[in-house]
Amino acid sequence: MILRRSWATRSAFRCAMVYGLMIHSVDSSQTLHFSIFFTPEGNNAYKKTRQQTIMRRILEEHLFQMHSGDQHTTVKSKASSSLDDADWLFRFTDSKPAAFKAQAGFDYTEGILRLQASTLFEYPKLVVWKHVDKVVYTLICEPLDNPLLASNFLTLFVHELSDHFRKAGNMVEEVSSRPDEIFTILNLMLPGGQLLFTNSNLHRHFKAQISQVLSQK
């Protein structure tokens, strides 16, 4: 009965399938720690070029935030960055500039950008990303996906990885060398690429399941 209730709860909170997820360096568009794509297009012959394109766009936006001296809730202008005019940008409101936070010991930027349809993407994509301590966590979504739901998933996912891997040592090394454990976490938090509406009860349920499964490895 408990298992049935748990499955029913997860099904009730199920949402759309995302395009893919990447974990990569904030310092280079060439350093990828982990990736998974949930569509045939995401895994085709252009996969590496696609990954580097996404990382390059995020690196560009991260650098803009670090050097702009301010973050705005919504920005769309030629002066905002060197992204194409057709790309729109969302920067989460913050009372302190990213450069100030970096000097104060915080290493954190985040945002949402849009990739236009091209040879790499048949349809436009939303890219939701969070950078924490030199690592960027990126969720590539479809145009109609809920970006705030995606952002909430990334927040929970980053915390879960941090709780799990920091106990073992260097975060980057652990993420790169233990992809099977990331797959385990994703199988529960993002099953088959499906975004879930996650409330506090469901989050506690995920944490308990993740801890139980990973303790058996």
From TrEMBL:
- Pfam families under this entry? AP-5_subunit_s1
Keyword annotations for this protein, in alphabetical order, are: Kinase, Transferase
For this protein, the record's InterPro entries field holds: AP-5_subunit_s1
The molecular function terms of the Gene Ontology recorded here are:
kinase activity
From the Swiss-Prot or TrEMBL record, give the protein name: Calcium/calmodulin-dependent protein kinase type IV
In its UniProt entry, the species of origin is given as Durusdinium trenchii
